[in-house]
Amino acid sequence: MLRRNTNQRQIVYDAIKMLGHASTEELINYINTNYTGVSLATIYRNLGILIEDDMIRKVKFNDVDVYETIKRKHYHFICRHCNKIIDVIPDETGLGIENLKNIEGNTIDECEVVFYGTCADCKNKTTVF
Question: How many CB atoms lie within 10 A of CB 79?
Answer without folding.
Answer: 17
